[in-house]
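Human:
Take a look at this sequence-structure pair and walk me through the tokens.
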Amino acid sequence: HKNLKIWFSKRTDSKRFRKIGAEMPEGVDMLANCLRAGLSFQQSIEFVSINGPSHIAAEFKAIIEKIKNYL
């Protein structure tokens, strides 16, 4: 039972990482374009968290939450 949970967790993480990896170029391009347009780094991350591909957006939302909780 415990081994099944570990296997499922690793499999889920692996699929998630593949999806994030596939979306990473578009997310990084969006981030770079925001910075070139004059947005701050935090504003750029927020933009990608709202407008980016779904899995990258979720990761950037988590970063924004950590920043807000820290400040």
